[in-house]
Specification:
The complex is a heterodimer.
Chain A: H1 4-8, H2 16-30, H3 39-55, H4 58-65, H5 82-87, H6 103-112, E1 128-134, H7 136-141, E2 143-148, E3 154-159, E4 168-171, E5 187-193, E6 199-202, E7 205-213, H8 214-219, E8 221-227, E9 230-236, E10 245-248, E11 254-255, E12 260-261, E13 264-271, H9 278-291
Parallel strand pairs in A: 1-5, 7-13
Antiparallel strand pairs in A: 2-3, 4-5, 6-7, 8-9, 10-13, 11-12
Helix pairs in contact in A: 2-3
Chain B: H1 7-10, H2 16-24, E1 31-33, E2 36-38, H3 41-56, H4 64-90, H5 95-106
Antiparallel strand pairs in B: 1-2
The chains are: A alpha+beta, B mainly alpha.
Chain lengths: 299, 107
């Protein structure tokens, strides 16, 4: 690793104000927003800023000089630069008033002047778009997939855990090749998640209908439930009704951003036996004579 | 979307007064929703750029409109160039390579 003084281009006995002015000079030359098309400047700027974080602070500089902290220091907080928003079309309120309607002007410019960073004209390769249908379980748990391309080659796609229907994955540099030494474009893969016969997704939660028998509904009981990661036994409380929800905490889809899992919600559904036998009929007739109730009272 | 009072937390070294002066100069153009100023991600990134220019690089405040105007023009140009490059790429024939040849000849 380079010495921090070398990175800022100052001598070891430079004063704090020398260091500050060296940093200012480099920042003006290298700040990514002042060099929107030069990724090398951005890498250099990060290096210079990290060096200034230590040398610009007298205490940290003394510690560095004594070898108590090394050049790696602590990672700088990563911020996005303005150019990323401007390039992505997210800063249209700042669009220049200058008119570029005269395309002829731009063509003239393109043909006469240098284009690429090294002075030669380059064109970045085009972006390509693909669709990829994945099974519900693969979307919930993540998977490695391969897309076969028309030209016979294949593209490996890592489907991230918890990917959502319609989400777009970007594979940098996997688009069409650039021309004249320009970089390749990117591949954008739109994910379609196939339906599951049992499960549905709501954000990080898994929703399923859980059929229970009439006796389980009245008396309660333990039932086996399928989850993303195998079967678990859950308790149906005594007196459960259709529509009530059993929440299995942490049995949903892992949210990569928050590092937590969603829940599985089982919506109870009372299912009568296929055949109403004389016993059940007798039981109900008997029960109804003095326990009749009206579940539609509130509607 | 962030509110005015969130900005000094998001961008270290910027005060509310300073932010208001940048907004009144129209260097920063937040959206007004129900008469409250709302700052989007691009606005915050631009505030961070102004903070770097003024407080880290010690650029004279009088030079800021010149710098912003040039930066905005560069981005408009880049977006035009991107459209053009995409159009060239979308062309079914191999005009990309032809263009490169022509450009290199005229350079």
């Amino acid at each position: 690793m380079k010495n921090l003084y070398e990175i800022l281009g100052v001598s070891k006995d430079a004063s704090q104000s020398d260091i500050k002015s060296a940093y200012r000079k480099l920042a003006k030359a290298l700040h990514p927003d002042l060099n929107p098309s030069d990724p090398k400047a951005e890498a250099r700027f990060k290096e210079v800023s990290a060096a200034f974080d230590i040398l610009g602070d007298q205490d940290k500089r003394a510690k560095y000089d004594r070898g108590e902290i090394d050049a790696s220091g602590q990672e700088r907080k990563q911020h996005d630069y303005y150019k990323q928003h401007a390039d992505a079309g997210g800063a249209q309120q700042y669009g220049s008033d200058a008119s570029f309607e005269d395309l002829g002007d731009i063509f003239a410019e393109m043909f006469r002047r240098e284009g690429g960073a090294d002075g030669s004209f380059q064109i970045r390769g085009g972006d390509v778009r693909y669709h990829l249908a994945v099974d519900f379980m693969d979307a919930a748990k993540g998977a490695a997939k391969r897309i076969s391309l028309p030209d016979g080659s294949a593209l490996n796609v890592k489907v991230p855990v918890g990917v959502k229907d319609g989400q777009i994955i970007r594979l940098r540099g996997k688009g069409r090749p650039g021309r004249g030494g320009g970089p390749s474009g990117d591949a954008y893969i739109e994910i379609a998640v196939r339906e599951h016969k049992m499960f549905r997704r709501e954000q990080d939660d898994i929703i399923m209908d859980l059929p229970i028998s009439i006796d389980e509904a009245v008396l309660g009981g333990k039932v086996e439930v399928q989850t993303l990661n195998g079967r678990v036994r859950v308790t149906v409380p005594k007196g459960s009704s259709t529509g009530q929800i059993l929440r299995l905490k942490g049995k949903g889809v892992k949210n990569l951003k928050r590092g937590q899992r969603g829940d599985q919600k089982c919506i109870l559904k009372i299912i009568l036996p296929d055949l109403i036998d004389p016993d059940l009929e007798a039981l109900m007739t008997n029960w109804r004579t003095d326990h009749a109730y009206n579940p539609r009272e509130s509607i | 979307m962030s509110n005015e009072e969130d900005i000094p937390v998001l961008v270290e070294g910027v005060t509310i007064d300073e932010l208001r002066s940048w907004v009144s100069e129209r260097w920063i153009r937040p959206t007004t929703i129900e008469s409250v100023l709302k700052f989007g991600h691009a606005d915050v990134a631009r505030i961070r750029l102004l903070q770097a220019l003024i407080h880290q690089m010690d650029v004279d405040v009088g030079a800021i409109p010149v710098i912003l105007s040039l930066i905005d023009q560069v981005h408009s140009m880049r977006s035009q160039m991107r459209c053009l490059a995409e159009a060239i790429n979308a062309h079914p024939g191999d005009i990309g390579d032809e263009l490169i040849k022509l450009v290199r000849l005229s350079q």
